[in-house]
Amino acid sequence: MAENFFLDNRDLQFYLQQADLRQVVALKEKGYTYHEKYAAAPRHYEDARDSYRLLLEVLGDICAHVIAPRAAEADEVGAQFHDGQVQYAPATQEALKAFKQADLTGAMLPWEYGGMNLPETIYQMMVEMVSRADAGLMTIFGLLEIAMSINEFGDEAMKARVLPRFARGEVSGAMVLTEPDSGSDLGSVQTRATLDPATGDWRLNGVKRFITNGCADVMVVLARSEPDSNDARGLSMFLVEKDESVTIRRIENKMGLHASPTCEIQYNNTPAQLIGKRRFGLIRYAMALMNGARLAVAAQAVGIAEAAYREAYRYAHERVQFNQAICGFPAVSRLLLSMRSEIEAARALMYESARWVDLEKALGQHIAASAKPDPADRQALKRAAKLAEVLTPLTKYFATEMGNRVAYKAMQIHGGVGYMREFNVERHYRDVRVTNIYEGTSQLQIVAAIGKLLGHALDDLLNEWAAQDYGEELAPLKNQVIEATALLNRSADHLKECPTETIDYYASDVVDIATHVLNGWLLLQDARRDTRKQSIAQVYIAEHLTKIHTAVAAIQTADALPLAHRDKILASPF
After folding, report:
1. pLDDT digits 0-9 by tens, 120-177
2. Residue 335 CB coordination number (10 Å)
């Protein structure tokens, strides 16, 4: 059993040390003036980083000693539903109590509401560790993004009433979007919000389904506020504080994440409060949550993959066959190498993406509060927003697909026993499966990213990395990644000239090439700072350069032929 989920993870410590958050933290802390009012606020950047490290160590201890030892129990018992009430498993309740006692429940909230004003990057490190300990628990802990939405778009009275309760751990949150007939197509949401002109009060009526932690005390609900509308422009966002008019109709009997209740909810003339402006619910407010949500699920997948890898590594060194530990067999050691390199690549991409999301948020808030914003800040914000918009879907796509591959290989290394419920790898295999489905399927992430990739949205960033000196030892790897970058650009340019149907057909190939190129550059940069990373970079680039060439070959010969065959094959179900 691990002693601490932060201190036993050299890679996580590496990214805390290397994270370039100096500008972000200075902006969030208002030039470190918050320390004058809030004793816990940092006095300078090194003070902030020391605080982050201490916080991660505290959480790492809780993960190792409170959460992980009872994760199998939490999964086995699961969330319970009786007489319209949802109850967390006892192990889940104990974990939430530990978070509350350690003051970890308001991590990203501003100081004035009792929070710790953490950057997104640090929060995702917390999410990763909790997910490694118990992926189901993460879907309760990770919903602090709901409070951040209220903080960003709610009025002052709403924030003062609700946010301190989040910070004290008195309430949990839920983002209530999907309906039985509105999953990915949120523009078709039919839950109705009706305004009483006399009182100015709103009431909600309708049914929501597949709501993570739908038993929450505070809900942010997407509903149709414009009676004659039938698209996204008629949707608004509402705050609901759970009362007797909110009915939990059922909880889903899921494949995994049993500790987390996924609910079907009915609103029966439920009192609600408008968040922000009417009509902005989906096109602005829900979409603003998207970057943080993508990162959180990516972090969840990385945490599960880390747990699965460690189980496989341990088992491979303990299991003896033919008079030797099975880790000595090349077929097994190759699986472990591939798993390790993909996990570290996903982590590199995730924390690079989180940095740009942090910068976009910090600059946006700074400019909004400035009487005369600096043009340079506006330009920096524009760049950060552009990169966050393309990097977050790529991160969510790669990390969650990676998590599924790693869990699959971890079970394969265990052989038959991995299929048994007594082994943790079976739980990880079940838990990770939903990560490339919820908060936008992998296919939707491809749709979100492809237009930006065809428009060369990454060019400036990739050119910056290519211009850096990686030293003589890493020069061969740099040349390989330069070649891969050229192939990405060539593929994008070729596909851009093709019909829309052909672009859509090959979009996943371009996204795969882009993620491998990004990961190659990021691992090379890490290898400059840490010799341990050189081997990881070597393994990852060697494994994925061949895949890039295969994808490029398919794109370069793109024409209508595959589509014609597709139509013939799928014209009949058999």
Report:
1. 999 999 999 999 999 999 999 877 888 989 999 999 999 999 999 999 999 999 999 9
2. 21
Indicate the SS3 state at residue 110.
Answer: coil
What's the DSSP call for residue 189?
Answer: -
**pLDDT per position as a tens digit, 240-293:** 999 999 999 999 999 999 999 999 999 999 999 999 999 988 888 888 888 889
Beta-carbon neighbour count of residue 546 at 10 Å? 9
| Chain centre to alpha carbon of residue 549 | 29
* Cα distance between the two ends of the chain: 50
What is the spatial distance between Cα 428 and Cα 547, in angstroms, rounded to a whole number?
A: 27
Q: Report the percent of the chain where pLDDT is more than 90.
A: 84
Average of per-residue pLDDT values in the chain: 94
Band of pLDDT at residue 561, cut at 50, 70 and 90:
low
The secondary structure of 300-351, three-state, reads HHHHHHHHHHHHHHHHHHHCEECCEEHHHCHHHHHHHHHHHHHHHHHHHHHH
pLDDT score at 566: 75
Q: Give the residues across from 241 on adjacent strands.
A: 218
Q: Is 252 helix (H, G, I), strand (E, B) or coil?
A: coil
Q: Which domains does the chain have, with CATH numbers?
A: 1-142 (1.10.540.10), 173-279 (2.40.110.10), 289-440 (1.20.140.10), 448-570 (1.20.120.470)
What letter does residue 439 receive in the DSSP assignment?
Answer: T
DSSP 67: I
Nearest to 291 by CA among 207, 378, 205, 358: 358
Q: Which of 229, 228, 211, 232 is nearest to 220 (CA)?
A: 211
Q: Going by DSSP bridges, is the β-strand pair 173-176/218-224 parallel, antiparallel, or unpaired?
A: parallel
d(CA 66, CA 88): 16
Closest CA to 392 of 462, 464, 293, 303: 293
In total, the chain counts a number of residues equal to 574
CA distance 534 to 470: 11
Q: Which amino acid is at 232?
A: A
pLDDT at 1: 59
Do the beta carbons of residue 397 and residue 511 sit within 8 Å? yes
Report yes or no: 300 and 127 within 8 Å, Cβ to Cβ: yes
Tokens of 192: 């109705």
Residue 535 has phi, psi (to 5 degrees) of -65, -40
Specify whether the CB–CB gap between 491 and 551 falls below 8 A: yes
- Output DSSP code: residue 64: I
What single-letter DSSP state applies at residue 34? G
Distances (CA, A) of 117 to 38, 108, 486, 556: 11, 5, 40, 48
What stretch of H or E contains 201? strand 201-212
What are the tens digits of pLDDT across the range 40-72? Answer: 999 999 999 999 999 999 999 999 999 999 999
3-state secondary structure at position 190? coil
